[in-house]
Amino acid sequence: MKSNWLVLGLPALLIAGAILVAMNALGDKDSNLRPYHSANPEPQGSLAFYRLLESEGFKVERFRTNYEKLPEGRHLLVLFENSKYSWTEIDLLLDWVYEGGIVLSLGNPGYQYTVTDRAEEVQSGDEYKARTYFANAWTPRKALARAPDPKLRLTPEEGEWAPLMGDVYGSTISIEYWGEGAWIQAVEPGIATNAYIAKENNAAILASIANRAQPESVLFDDCALGDCRQASGSPLVSWPSAWRVFIWHVGLLTAMVMLSVGRRFGLARPEPRRIPMATDYVEAMSRLYGSASARAAALETILEQAVRSVARQNGIAVTVTTQQLLERLPKESEQAAVIKEAQELIASAHLSAADAVHTAVKLAEITR
């Protein structure tokens, strides 16, 4: 039995391990980290920014695929502080910006050089138009968004004024133009997070950037957040629905195969319900009544069942009586002898429990 479980257990563990490895490989490049959605209510999320843009009348969506599938036209792509990119991805973004796209990079992204350095490598100076800085400007703007959490405030504590950006120490935003588009980079890390918006009252700068760009839609980049160490949650929650359905189906099919193989190898199964033997019935009747008449009644019931079984075995109608069955059976047969013996004992006035049990066992044997 133990060897059977070992034969089944090892493949099951290997299959489970393979599924977990595949989940990590598909869900994130770094198996120790998990992506989180950009527009979530956690302190490091940006749900307040998401709601702010919606209240400004912009169509806001989550972008969850690679940069080769960025939409054509004037769209604003929001990249977050902990995003991490390869050179190929940066080149795709620069090409997209050159064709008219707008990138808003929040904080210091995880590439080695600035996007401007890379742009100057791949494009000529004529295409690179200008760089504009904003620092500590103020604008008389009312907050038009409703915070997703009562603790988040999008307006100053007093009055209608809101700071354009950051604090009084010179936080800076740069707008770099090339081609038909622009790359807007905020030096201050986490400027669009829920925690920062609640602390610094910088909702106005975020809304003014979008209003200045006037994009067809705003895309929150969810596909490059795999390096965020504040992330949490199971990959079965953060993955696209198709992958989750696939993994659950694989698990279900694996369980079904294991059950099927277990039956094939004869592993222990629940014992079937025990059917009382004929002898149990006679003994129970004997204990209950303690008389020969009670034992005779019990043996007669067993004899009736035996007569039907013997008739069926010999191709005789099961409606025959005991006497009719004896007439049709060979007189020298064991079945006829046992049935006749049972008839005689039932008619006896002194039927003992031992004789009743012994005869019941014989009746059970001839019906097998």
Question: What order do the helices and strands come in, and which of them pair?
Answer:
Elements lengths: L1 H26 L19 H9 L4 E4 L12 E4 L7 H12 L3 E5 L8 H8 L5 E8 L2 E2 L22 E2 L8 E7 L2 E6 L7 H7 L2 H11 L4 E4 L13 H4 L2 H24 L13 H12 L2 H22 L8 H7 L5 H14 L5 H14 L2
Parallel strand pairs: 1-9, 2-3, 2-9, 3-8
Antiparallel strand pairs: 4-7, 5-6, 7-8
Describe this structure in words.
The chain has 368 residues and is an alpha/beta fold. The chain has two domains: 35-232, Rossmann fold (3-Layer(aba) Sandwich); 282-366, no CATH class. 46% of the residues lie in helices and 11% in strands. It has 13 helices and nine strands. The strands form two sheets. It has a seven-stranded mixed β-sheet. A hairpin with a 2-residue loop joins β7 and β8. α10 runs antiparallel to α12, α10 packs parallel to α13 and α12 packs antiparallel against α13 (353-366).
What is the residue-mean pLDDT, rounded to a whole number? Answer: 66
> How much of the sequence is in beta strands?
5-15%
Fraction of helical residues: 40-55%
CATH class value of the largest domain = Alpha Beta
Helix and strand string, N-terminal first?
HHEEHEHEEEEEHHEHHHHHHH
Strand order of the largest sheet: 1-9-2-3-8-7-4
Structural class: alpha/beta
CATH hierarchy: architecture of the largest domain:
3-Layer(aba) Sandwich
Largest sheet: 7 strands, mixed
Radius of gyration equals 42 Å
Q: Give the domain tally.
A: 2
Query: Which consecutive residue ranges, at least 5 long each, have pLDDT under 50?
Result: 27-36, 109-171, 225-233
- The gross shape turns out to be rod-shaped
